[in-house]
Amino acid sequence: MLTFIGLGLYDERSITVEGQAALRNADRAYAEFYTSRLIGTTIPDLESYHDVEIEVRDRAGVEQHPEDILEAAEDEDVAFLTAGDTMISTTHVDLRLRAHDRGIETRVVHGVTAQTATSALTGLQNYRFGKATTLPFPYAHGADGLPASVTDTIDANRADGLHTVVYLDIKVGHERTDEDEYMTADVGAELLAEEYPELVGVVVARAGSPDPLVEAGTIIDLADREFGEPLHLLVIPGECHLLEADALVELAGVERDVLDVT
């Protein structure tokens, strides 16, 4: 059995009760934290809290060389841990399909996702979000200006009146510095300001923590602010219903007259 468990958004306590039971009952546990991280905890703290040993795998160890994980799951109960909700990344889907090819039974135990938490924290309705996009560090995509994947997504969503979640790049143990790098919202806003200086943006920082932050303003204005510790993301609101506008004014401090209210 291979059980994919979403750990939630912030620390060792963010997991669901069902996920905790599945993890503690597993014979062995693996994890990856290159798609996202739990900023509020460490691997030793996770292991201590759940009374398990966790083997953390890098991208190559999951995507290219997962044979030992799959071999273990043929005879044992194996847990595979990810931040947020599992199966959000194609990496996790690929591993699950490889397990099925071997005749291994799989199970998914969900966790809270950044996108649903963002909807809850901002008051923007979940069904009014369009396609999400990821804003990479400039060195990661190797081109001048914003990638077309970002601008095309924002433009298409805005044309349909939909909100856009802009995930900000994470590099775990990047070869340039051998350290983890997290794009902050001010840096993301500075990059987006090349194309969208006067659009309204909403910063969501540390979702799932005891002190999440939600702040709104024009993109050029957000580029000059500081938002504290990661993880951060940005939302570009589309057309807002009256209740959504009320929420952004009250919860994010935006001026109502800069919103597109329908």
UniProtKB/TrEMBL annotation:
CDD domains: DHP5_DphB. Pathway: Protein modification; peptidyl-diphthamide biosynthesis. It is an enzyme of class 2 (transferase). Keywords: Methyltransferase, S-adenosyl-L-methionine, Transferase. It holds the Pfam family TP_methylase. It catalyses: 2-[(3S)-amino-3-carboxypropyl]-L-histidyl-[translation elongation factor 2] + 3 S-adenosyl-L-methionine = diphthine-[translation elongation factor 2] + 3 S-adenosyl-L-homocysteine + 3 H(+). GO terms for molecular function: diphthine synthase activity. Residues 1-222 form the Tetrapyrrole methylase domain. The keyword Transferase applies. GO terms for biological process: methylation; protein histidyl modification to diphthamide. InterPro entries: 4pyrrol_Mease, 4pyrrol_Methylase_sf, 4pyrrole_Mease_sub1, 4pyrrole_Mease_sub2, Dphthn_synthase. S-adenosyl-L-methionine binds at L9, D85, I88, T113, A114, L168, A207, H232. Its EC number is 2.1.1.98. The keyword Transferase applies. Belongs to the diphthine synthase family. S-adenosyl-L-methionine-dependent methyltransferase that catalyzes the trimethylation of the amino group of the modified target histidine residue in translation elongation factor 2 (EF-2), to form an intermediate called diphthine. The three successive methylation reactions represent the second step of diphthamide biosynthesis. Homodimer. This is Diphthine synthase. It comes from Natrarchaeobaculum sulfurireducens.
